[in-house]
Design brief:
Number of domains: 1
CATH class: Alpha Beta
Radius of gyration: 16 Å
Number of strands: 9
Oligomer: single chain
Number of helices: 6
Strand content: 15-25%
Length: about 190
């Protein structure tokens, strides 16, 4: 994977589908003087994604795209026009095509709510609890053509409590996500 190196902050796009708490967290970090990225563009595959409010509030340009048929070509054109160098998937519930991934090879990262390679895909918290796992956590990884299979950048684990439900575990892991996503970005970018 390619380390992003440069004198200026790296222009970044964040792709979302839902509440946007990781987007909001990354926006806060991006405003810090020594943080290596700016959030220049937000993409959502859902027009009613609550996370779009963070883009509006922070005056960040955004686009809604279904990612059906050739609509991703429109997004690619905008990404190139805006000189985006890094894409962060943050609760983005669409699988990008191999063609799209290849256009940004090594420059798309994702946060996933499990300790990969365990529990790829959906319902990670329920699956971890149902399998009596002692630990769960979250992983930031590079995106490749296989679902949740790219090279791991950073992981953080926590102990699953006996009384954890999928919802309580999700809430606890979400707090971890807000810690490791910014740290993982700093790890792959050298200013």
């Amino acid at each position: 994977m390619v380390k992003l190196i440069g004198a200026k902050k790296v222009k970044t796009a964040v792709f979302i589908s839902g509440k946007g708490s990781n987007l909001n967290n990354l926006i806060k970090f991006s405003k810090k003087k020594k943080y290596p990225i700016t959030i220049d563009f937000v993409v959502s595959n859902k027009k009613n994604a609550k996370g779009l409010n963070f883009a509006k509030k922070n005056k960040i340009d955004f686009k809604i795209c279904s990612f059906e048929k050739n609509s991703e070509n429109k997004i690619l054109k905008i990404l190139y026009k805006k000189k985006i160098k890094l894409i962060c998937l943050a609760g983005f519930m669409k699988i990008l095509t191999k063609k799209f991934i290849n256009k940004f090879n090594g420059k798309i990262i994702n946060i996933h709510p499990s300790l990969l390679p365990k529990y790829k895909g959906l319902n990670t918290h329920k699956r971890a609890i149902d399998n009596n796992e002692k630990y769960s956590g979250c992983t930031v990884h590079y995106v490749n053509a296989k679902l949740d299979s790219g090279k791991i950048i950073l992981q953080k684990k926590l102990k699953i409590k006996k009384n954890d439900t999928p919802t309580s575990l999700e809430n606890r892991i979400h707090k971890l996500e807000h810690l490791i996503y910014p740290a993982a970005i700093k790890r792959i970018i050298s200013l």
